[in-house]
Amino acid sequence: QVQLVESGGGLVQPGGSLRLSCAASGSINSIYTMGWYRQAPGKQRGLVAAISSGGSTSYADSAKGRFTISRDNAKNTVYLQMNSLKPEDTAVYYCNADIATVGSIGNYWGQGTQVTVSS
């Protein structure tokens, strides 16, 4: 059984910063690509940023220059540093990862953490 648990969401004023964390636990052999997605009310879930096991990163245009994704492989944890936050960044943020367990590789989601940017 594999679990992804996010933390770090909350309420922040426009221009502020938040750091999200997502820790994977369970019977894990390897973790491949890890990523952050978000879903605002009435909108589809979309990719914010992703990072490969080797550290290569990719970002949505809306995140470039403001958000930074990183990972600590020893802790099976991925982070999303979000700076210069805007009201349009308000959404539920979900962690996602491709994880190899004994005998299989699966795609896993966290439960989501709310980020609200408002004055």
Mind sketching the topology for me?
Elements: E1 2-7, E2 10-12, E3 18-26, E4 30-39, E5 46-51, E6 57-59, E7 67-72, E8 77-82, E9 91-101, E10 104-109, E11 113-117
Can you characterise this structure?
The strands form two sheets. Strands 2, 4, 5, 6, 9, 10 and 11 form a seven-stranded mixed β-sheet that branches. Strands 1-3-8-7 form a four-stranded antiparallel β-sheet, with no helix packed on it. The protein has no helices and eleven strands. The protein starts with a strand and ends with a strand. A hairpin with a 4-residue loop joins strand 7 and strand 8 (77-82). The protein is an all-beta fold. The protein has strands spanning 2-7, 10-12, 18-26, 30-39, 46-51, 57-59, 67-72, 77-82, 91-101, 104-109, 113-117. Helices cover 0% and strands 60% of the residues.
Q: Any key phrases for this structure?
A:
119 residues; mainly beta; seven-stranded mixed β-sheet; four-stranded antiparallel β-sheet; 11 strands; 0% helix; elongated
Run of helices and strands: EEEEEEEEEEE
Helix content: under 10%
Count the beta strands: 11
Give the overall pLDDT as a whole number. Answer: 97
Distance between the termini: 40 Å
Secondary-structure content class: mainly beta
What does the largest sheet look like?
A: 7 strands, mixed
What is the rounded Rg? 14 Å
Tally of individual helices: 0
How much strand content do the residues show?
A: over 45%
Please state the overall shape, judged from the principal axes of the Cα atoms.
elongated
Query: Regarding quaternary structure, how should these chains be classified?
Result: single chain
Uncertain stretches of 5 or more adjacent residues: none
